[in-house]
């Protein structure tokens, strides 16, 4: 028997990482509709948006409005991506109770983006974490490109660990490894996850895979075999690769849930409802997205 | 470390299972060009076509001509799918030296197709095997839908084993498990492959996955972890699902080779040449196919 967890928690990132890569700006009411549907379907972690400059990321301009709308929701973790203290102030103001910080494990990438080393970036996070904690907001962190970067190619374990250490130093103990460049491969995912879980036994790990080169599902399998139980996915496979125009996006939520259902690994999520929401989202963005189950249906549906 | 083989052999099925699902009939010269390129790229097993009734499968009408053309090729296994003795006679005549028989593990499927039980089908293979062996043609067999069928849903291990036993009885010791309905999931693939390899230690196993529900790469990973070292794949991801119009086809050769390259698992195949051939094939069939690496390029290509 393959050694696998019996239950997995998914975080839906379609409304953030997915829509951020779309030309279409979905209106707030549509986002509310999808979020309600996803909560009804059983999702317990949803990334609603980000508190960035609306001029830079217009797709996320209504993140505050979404958090205001859902401020009474219980038992569902609604989170937002935050870049700095100004973002935390917005989070405090609109009732967001969980934020995610981000830094790249790739020195070249982080320097190109904000002219800081990863450690300098995280040192700046201290004030964000402080304000968040004072305001009762939980903080998680993500690390981009631990599995490979367009700048350096492979990333050393030392570079990754120094970022994890920096996160721990500012009090962040929930960390996501994000393969936004789609360069991760299964044996690497397995080895790295095994190692990091042993070295940092009190960290809660998430994995975030893009299906850029078709390996996301295999990487999720490898992550589960290494004992990881928290994964990001995106409704309809919405998203893209910031470095490859036209490439596939995040792994599709319905594809992941379908595989887990068929493997008898529990997610607590109703796949039929998710497929219906994913179709709606695909209609709204106005083009086909990288989803298999939306095209082929569930294996179950095929049975006469 | 994840337990994995160090080397994998791929069989290219684009010219058969891929083209068979295409409206475009590729001309013989184009097939010859692609085959030459694939041999030059390092492929050592290629399914050139099938000896079926050309009226039923017009895309494969020139299979004899292809085998005539390549009759002098050494060190590359060129094989064809064969349905009956008539097909073997064609194989003998055109110099084909390796054939593959096929039967479904799904009783409903086999009855619907040819109104015979799987065991009755294989009993009929005896005359084909006899003629082939007398003519120095090697015979392999494939089993459709061992991982699930649109007719019965799950297929019992007993049903699969009775087919394997029937194959062994007529002297076929090389067997492919073919997930043409795209219903296989990784933990099932792992468990079944482990079991079958233990029970039938002298069988040479192949796995054939379609990416219908996005799980082909994860299934290949699971197969490798179970010790399987022979997999089918299709240039450009050409093909389809016979039961789901518009669904994704066979797993793309370039996606599989890319993943194996990046995992340091040897295939002996030059990925750059394969990408070039896959692009050519995509141009010739005139539409995008389900290939990731054709869209995104290799991970290596991304590195600045």
UniProtKB/TrEMBL annotation, chains A, B:
Keywords: Lyase, Metal-binding, Transferase
Metal-binding among keywords: yes
CDD domains to which the protein is assigned, alphabetical: DRE_TIM_HMGL
A Pfam family matched in the record: HMGL-like
A GO molecular-function annotation: acyltransferase activity, acyl groups converted into alkyl on transfer
SUPFAM superfamilies found in the cross-reference section: Aldolase (SSF51569)
GO biological process: ketone body biosynthetic process; L-leucine catabolic process
Domain Pyruvate carboxyltransferase stretches: 8-275
InterPro entries recorded: AIPM/Hcit_synth_CS (IPR002034), Aldolase_TIM (IPR013785), HMGL (IPR043594), PYR_CT (IPR000891)
Keyword GTP-binding tagged: no
Family matches, as Gene3D superfamilies: Aldolase class I (3.20.20.70)
Organism domain of life: Bacteria
PANTHER family: HYDROXYMETHYLGLUTARYL-COA LYASE (PTHR42738)
Protein family (similarity comment): Belongs to the HMG-CoA lyase family. Belongs to the alpha-IPM synthase/homocitrate synthase family.
NCBIfam families to which the protein is assigned, alphabetical: PRK05692.1
Protein name in UniProt: Hydroxymethylglutaryl-CoA lyase
Species: Anoxynatronum buryatiense
């Amino acid at each position: 028997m393959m050694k696998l967890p019996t239950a997995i928690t998914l975080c839906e990132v379609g409304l953030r990482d997915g829509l951020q890569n779309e030309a279409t700006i979905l209106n707030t009411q549509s986002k509310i509709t999808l979020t309600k549907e996803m909560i009804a379907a059983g999702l317990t972690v949803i990334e609603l948006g980000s508190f960035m400059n609306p001029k830079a990321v217009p797709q996320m301009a209504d993140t505050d409005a979404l958090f205001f709308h859902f401020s009474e929701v219980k038992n569902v973790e609604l989170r937002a991506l935050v870049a700095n203290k100004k973002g935390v102030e917005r989070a405090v103001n609109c009732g967001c109770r969980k934020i995610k910080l981000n830094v790249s494990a790739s020195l070249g990438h982080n320097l190109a983006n904000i002219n800081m080393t990863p450690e300098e970036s995280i040192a700046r996070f201290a004030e964000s974490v402080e304000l968040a904690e004072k305001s009762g907001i939980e903080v998680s962190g993500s690390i981009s490109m631990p599995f490979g970067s367009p700048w350096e190619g492979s990333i050393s374990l030392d570079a990754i660990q120094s970022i994890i250490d920096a996160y721990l130093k500012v009090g962040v103990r929930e960390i996501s490894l994000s393969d936004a460049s789609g360069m991760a491969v299964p044996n690497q995912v397995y080895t790295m996850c095994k190692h990091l879980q042993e070295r940092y036994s009190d960290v809660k790990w998430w994995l975030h895979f893009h299906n850029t080169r078709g390996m996301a599902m295999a990487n999720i399998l490898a992550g589960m075999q290494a004992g990881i139980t928290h994964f990001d996915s995106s409704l309809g496979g919405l998203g893209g690769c910031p470095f490859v125009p036209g490439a596939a996006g995040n792994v599709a939520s319905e594809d992941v849930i379908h595989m887990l259902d068929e493997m008898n690994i529990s997610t607590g999520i109703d796949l039929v409802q998710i497929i219906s929401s994913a179709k709606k989202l695909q209609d709204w963005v106005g083009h086909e997205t990288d989803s298999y189950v939306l095209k082929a249906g569930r294996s179950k549906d095929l049975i006469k």
